[in-house]
Amino acid sequence: MALPLPPALSDTIVALSTPPGAGAIAMLRLSGPEAIAMADAVFAGKKLQDQPSHTLHFGTIRDGARILDEVVVSLFKGPHSYTREDVVEISCHGSDYIVEQILTLLTRRGARLAEAGEFTKRAFLHGAFDLAQAEAVADLIAADSALSHQVALQQMRGGFSQELRDLRGRLVQFAALLELELDFGEEDVEFADRTGLVKLLTEVQTLVRRLLRSFELGNVIKNGVTTVIAGRPNAGKSTLLNALLNEERAIVSAVAGTTRDLIEDEVSIEGIRFRFVDTAGLRDTADVVESIGVERTKKRVTQAALLIYLFDITSTTPTELEAEIEALNPGRSIPVLAVGNKLDVASDPEIEAFRHQPDVLLIAAARGDGLDELREALLLRVRGEGLDRTGQSTIVTNLRHARSLELTNQALDAVLLGIEAGTGTELLAADLRQALAALGEITGEISSDDLLTSIFTQFCIGK
Question: Where does K(+) bind (predicted)?
């Protein structure tokens, strides 16, 4: 006898899966036990129930005798579908009116309007993939660079999940031995070799910490790098912005103080999205408007992930450069790249003064000299240590995953300290359970309804 479906999976849902608004084509998706029957009731063409899965069918959608539209219906019979349920996708003309009429017709037939992310949630609940892979679906939809697309695709296909399952599987073996010791507590039997456990925990913790370190890069890949270009007036900040963007985005003038406000734009460098911010030149000024721009520059620097301090080689000494960077960015709390501009007009002594200065790059923004080296230096500032430039290494991009990995790391620390201090098996087992629970939350092996609701409501309605 088949077990009844959970209430969340026993009805049939429908939603528009293409962006709202008029367009050439719109696609509505039905999923659930009555999806095919509901579609058959309104579709004039071949009887869908009798057709094989993964087939397309042309016909019309009718409300009684009234034809609403000519459509193409895609048929996917469970469990060979995205949700593992029967799924019907109706491709109609992209008129808001037509979409509304078809949705109304299907809801009258008993379909329920889907909640945000409900199709992917059903796929997860049916075991199509784990929670980390489900979240990667949302990341893939939001990907706006080659690298963010690559990382999301790798995670959706299970690369990250497999690594976590391997880690968790190794810990489960020893956790089982500790639990066995508890069952024989009165006989003082030690099943889990403590030396072997320390070795295993150390290896697992090394991998967990590597994943945690990768989050810094993962966050950059997902959200981009806000990079402020700051410096004195006429250092060439606007010229540099235009050169990096390869377009005339900012006004360039020999008159000092031309830039009064922040100018921002984005560019992708080897798959990493940089948001460059051109700022007002830093100087004391009696001009009210320019002084407001200077204050905005200082405030924007504090919000930056990376600072390019641009200076004119022909009018700056190494001592002045260091003092200016320190005044703007005390203690270099924000990663900074000092870039000397106007290499094309500087004298040999002026160039030599900076040639061997550490962390100083020399360019000629107006001519494009040194820009490739600048792009490479920017990438080096944001890439994590030891991470594969092609994005093939596992990279953590999700804050929830990073927090769970941090909890795992803390629990493993507690187990290792407990072993060193000779702590009893009961406390060791409790700490190891916490590590396993934290890892399990990432993939959804351990989850709550609140957690699932929080995750899937971030998806778009039709996914």
Answer: 234, 253, 255, 258
The answer to whether residue 1 sits within a structural domain is no
257 marked among binding-site residues: yes
Q: What is the pLDDT of residue 296?
A: 79
359 with 437, same domain: the answer is no
The mean per-residue pLDDT over the stretch 35-49 comes to: 96
- Is 254 flagged in the annotation as binding? yes
234 assigned ligand-binding residue: yes
Distances (CA, A) of 351 to 346, 366, 378: 6, 17, 22
Determine if residue 271 is labeled as part of a ligand binding site.
no
To the question of whether residue 24 is assigned a binding role by annotation, the answer is no
Is 159 labelled a binding residue?
Answer: no
Give the pLDDT of residue 357: 83
Domain boundary among 334, 350, 383: 383
Is position 158 annotated in a ligand binding site?
A: no
C-alpha pair distances (Å), 289 with each of 218, 234, 237, 261, 279: 39, 17, 19, 9, 13
Domain range for residue 430? 142-219+398-444
> How confident is the model over 8-16, as a mean pLDDT?
86
Instruction: Determine if residue 435 is labeled as part of a ligand binding site.
Output: no
**Are 245 and 323 found together in one domain?**
yes
Q: What is the pLDDT of residues 72-114, one digit of tens each?
A: 999 999 999 999 999 999 999 999 999 999 999 999 999 999 9
pLDDT at 96: 94
Q: Is 111 annotated as a binding residue?
A: no
The total of other beta-carbon atoms located within 10 Å of residue 15's CB is 22
Q: Is 418 annotated as a binding residue?
A: no
Torsion of CA 277, 281, 286, 287, to 10 degrees: -50
Q: Do 230 and 343 belong together in one domain?
A: yes
**Judging by DSSP bridges, how do beta strands 272-278 and 263-269 pair with one another?**
antiparallel
- Tell whether residue 370 is among the known ligand binding residues: no
Distance CA 462, CA 90 (A): 13
Region of residue 158 (left: phi > 0; alpha: psi -120 to 50; beta: else): left
Question: Judging by DSSP bridges, how do beta strands 87-94 and 112-113 pair with one another?
Answer: unpaired
315 is in an annotated binding site: no
Q: β-strand 55-63 against 360-362: which pairing, if any?
A: unpaired
Q: Is 280 annotated as a binding residue?
A: yes
- Find out whether 253 is annotated in a ligand binding site: yes
Q: Is 281 annotated as belonging to a binding site?
A: yes
Per-residue pLDDT tens digits for 293-310: 667 777 888 888 888 999
Spatial distance between the Cα atoms of 23 and 18, rounded to a whole number of angstroms: 10
Q: Is 235 annotated to bind ligand?
A: yes
Establish whether 175 is an annotated binding residue: no
**Pairwise CA distance, residues 36 & 76, whole Å:** 9
